[in-house]
Design brief:
23% of the residues lie in helices and 25% in strands. It is α/β, with parallel strands linked by helices and 506 residues long. It has two domains: 318 residues, Alpha-Beta Barrel (TIM Barrel); 96 residues, Immunoglobulin-like. α2 packs across α3, α4 runs parallel beside α5 and α8 packs parallel to α9. It is globular and about 70 Å long. It starts with a helix and ends in a 6-residue tail after the last strand.
Length: 506
């Protein structure tokens, strides 16, 4: 995706010089009244802490980030853009690709270069996360390779190699492992020129051969794709591909999509996109096909402040709880361009702090009824541990869509369609116009807490321009309710942790 960002950035710079520098819409009013009912679980908080980028790369480009992945609460990792050498790619231009010689015998273990990919995949497993194996090509612009889109191997050969890769990791083939890797994604963004230079019908053949080969190996393996990012069928990878898969009765256990919020910068986009694709899949009869968001982030072109991206990420993950998305994979763990959750020295970025704050809700998985949050930027999520006397966490994220990304699109975007020469043509989601009110902070009340008479420790942690998930306040309260009030101007994230003084709190 980095190569795409560079191309998109140059194109937009020519079109909208200065347009993205407008100040955000003014907020009106004071504190938002937020209430949480600690006695009323409504659902289980779903972990959407998927990530691109492995704890260890196939090369030596960064140290072991296992502890950071655990700190972030990562529960599944997609093997895409592992490093600058093509680690985990089956073919392509990367020196660490698994099947380097297309004329080699696919049934001979000596034809494979598993070492670098073994290192990366095993680091995922050791971190405690699941593996989602992406069979597409990596972005190798970091190695000076501008595109990685040469035609793939013959479909039958590619399918045979992919099957042996799965056997290596799931059945011990070629001195391999028994990792029970369940999710296998076929390709990455075939609707973009940098990753696929063939015709649509050639991709259909590749998908058909590979999906059948993998599914026949183990029925429990989940097969999906194609990691669509243009959000249209102009090149034949959306409706046309679904029609082909249906007509040929091919496996499609999950359907994967990518989204970066250029021109909207709206965290509700992922919910809208999930709803749109749920309707599309259902209309083609794929009612049981899950939707996976296998890449997502802020827009590729804009350069938000660290606090702005952090609040955007927290908002997005909270809103995704109500989206028909089975999994979501943030792009990415480390690297340049402001996307990273982890700095090169191993510390978390502000966005990583916000991501970790959301991930901490996994320790209080009972989702509690709350009021006061909205879908315009002030997002609220509350959870409680399994015990009715246990810990409670309330996450409040305050984000505002920049004014330049609200209302009508710029004149160079016609009918929500934007073309980038040499890359692809994108259909954008409609923009919203939002009036912000009572979002200067919060006035939080958590009611019906059991065992509070013995004392409740209330700790507030913040992510903003001055805090890196820093403890900003700790108080002792007693009774069956907790009240906390604080200024929290956008962009900011606040995690409120309510802990009983004595175990069960009684």
């Amino acid at each position: 995706m980095i190569m795409l960002r560079r191309q998109v950035g140059w194109t937009l710079a020519c079109l909208v010089v200065g347009a993205l520098g407008a100040s955000s819409a003014a907020a009106e009013g004071g504190l938002r009244q937020i209430t949480v009912d600690a006695s009323r679980p409504t659902a289980i908080i779903r972990s959407l802490q998927g990530l691109s980028g492995t704890p260890l790369p196939g090369d030596a480009s960064h140290p072991d980030f296992t502890s950071q992945f655990q700190q972030l609460g990562v529960n599944i990792v997609r093997t895409h853009d592992v490093d600058c050498t093509g680690t985990s790619d089956i073919d392509g231009a990367g020196v660490n690709r698994i099947f380097p010689d297309p004329s080699a015998d696919p049934n001979d273990p000596r034809s494979y270069n598993f070492g670098p990919t073994d290192k990366a995949v095993l680091s995922i497993v050791r971190s405690g996360a699941q593996v989602e194996y992406s069979l597409g090509r990596s972005d190798l612009s970091c190695a000076g390779i501008t595109v990685n889109n040469a035609p793939a191997l013959d479909p039958d050969l590619y399918a045979a190699v992919a099957r042996h890769v799965a056997q290596h990791y799931n059945d011990g083939w070629a001195n391999g492992y028994h990792l029970h890797i369940r999710y296998w994604e076929i390709w990455n963004e075939p609707d973009l020129v940098p990753f696929w230079s063939g015709r649509a019908d050639q991709f259909y053949a590749l998908y058909a051969a590979t999906a059948r080969a993998l599914k026949s190996l183990h029925p429990w393996m989940q097969i999906g794709g194609p990691a669509l990012t243009t959000n249209n069928d102009l090149t034949g990878y959306r409706e046309s591909l679904l029609a082909y898969i249906r007509a040929n009765q091919l496996p499609l256990d999950f359907y994967s999509i990518h989204h970066y919020t250029d021109f909207t910068e709206d965290p509700i986009d992922f919910v809208r996109l999930g709803d749109q694709y749920r309707q599309l899949l259902d209309s083609y009869g794929f009612t049981r096909t899950a939707i996976q968001l296998t890449e997502w982030n802020y827009g590729l072109v804009d350069n938000p402040s660290d606090a702005q991206r952090a609040a955007f990420v927290a908002d997005s993950l909270i809103y995704m709880q109500n989206a028909p998305l089975e999994r979501a994979f943030y792009y990415r763990a480390n690297g340049a361009n402001g996307f990273a959750l982890i700095n090169n020295d191993g510390t978390l970025t502000p966005t990583g702090d916000a991501y970790a704050a959301v991930g901490s809700l996994n320790s209080t998985p009972l989702r509690l009824a709350s009021t006061g949050g909205d879908t315009n930027g002030l997002a609220v999520e509350a959870g409680r541990s399994w015990s009715s006397h246990g810990e409670i966490r309330v996450l409040i994220s305050n984000y505002e869509i920049p004014a330049a990304d609200q209302g009508p699109f710029p004149p160079f975007i016609v009918d929500n369609v934007f073309a980038i020469p040499g890359v692809g043509t994108f259909t954008l989601l409609p923009r919203r116009a939002v009036t912000y009110a009572d979002n200067a902070g919060y006035d939080l009340t958590v009611n019906r807490i059991r065992g509070g008479a013995a004392g409740l420790v209330v700790s507030r942690y913040r992510v903003d321009a001055s805090h890196d998930l820093t403890l900003v306040d700790r108080t002792l309260q007693r009774g069956d309710a907790v009240h906390v009030s604080a200024a929290l101007p956008a962009p900011s994230v606040e995690l409120v942790v309510i802990s009983p003084v004595h175990g069960r709190g009684a």
